[in-house]
Write a structure and sequence with these properties.
By secondary structure, this protein is mainly alpha-helical. It is built from 3 helices and no strands.
């Protein structure tokens, strides 16, 4: 035996029917533009913090002044410092 078919109520979409929500207002849309990118200084500061931590040298609260000063230097210097720290964290095995 089959169950009797369920009849769903239908909505009459005439002018008198009120919608449950008003239509969206395009002027109230969220601004979905790309977020601003980090400055080179901010990127260097974050990279230095991450590299120090990865090298097993958690930055001391007093180190923030030094990290901030180093982060103002150009890309070449910041990359060299990170390379030095990574070399310190993973020293090359001596040749035997």
């Amino acid at each position: 035996m089959t169950a009797p078919a369920t009849i769903l109520p239908t909505v009459s979409w005439d002018a008198k029917t009120e919608l449950p929500l008003p239509p969206p207002d395009p002027t109230q849309r969220l601004d979905m533009t790309a977020p601003t990118l980090l400055t080179a200084r901010d990127q260097h500061r974050l990279t230095l913090h991450a590299t120090l931590t990865t090298a097993g040298i958690p930055p001391h609260p007093d180190d923030t002044k030094a990290i901030d000063a180093l982060s103002t230097l150009d890309d070449t210097v910041a990359l060299a410092i990170c390379r030095w720290l990574n070399t310190h964290a993973h020293p090359a095995t001596p040749l035997t």
